[in-house]
Amino acid sequence: MKQTRRVALTALGCAAAIIPLAGGFAPATANAGDAVAHLEPVALNGVPGSGTAFVTVRGTRVDVSMRAGGLLADAPHAAHIHFGADARHECPAATDDTDGSGTLNTTEGGPAYGAVRVSLTKTGDTSPASALAIDRFDTAPGGELAYQRGSIKVDQDVAKAITEGYAVIVIHGVDHNHDGSYDGATPSDLNPALPTEATDPALCGRIVPQG
Ligand SMILES: [Cu+2]
């Protein structure tokens, strides 16, 4: 009887020792989950469009499936996941028009959505270095953008931001003067070789975790 009791106590002690150890090795830091962004016209820029993006996070890989309509047809539309730790984690408002031009350029939206962290290119590099790789973004035939790409590598802080609802998707390219092409005298704030129409933010949506 005495012997049996001692064995039972030892077994309990063992279990108690293992539980906190297992907790320490549990993948608590791995980000995972589904999220959705409802893309709406950026304030002041007057794009008559909308869209939806689905984002699945698995560790530091993300799958993105996105559709949008009402964009300038047959013109390249840069699209990114933006995030900044000190940003507002939202789409810009009319009050972000700091130069008073009456429209919002990409830089003016920065305090709202942060920097480019992932370039949603169709092929090749997806880092911020490809932010304006115009020949690798969707050209929205008929104004309709359809994008799907899996296993996009992202930084740990970006994966975490997406799962916590702090990242924002932005589709760029606005035809302010409605003449069917990117033109105008105002240079882009991102690349002065391009007109601002080519890079101004068109549609935007915060990526909201699901479930
Ligand atoms: Cu962007």
From TrEMBL:
Protein name: CHRD domain-containing protein
Source organism (scientific name): Nocardioides mesophilus
Keywords assigned: Signal
Origin superkingdom: Bacteria
Cleavable signal peptide: 1-32
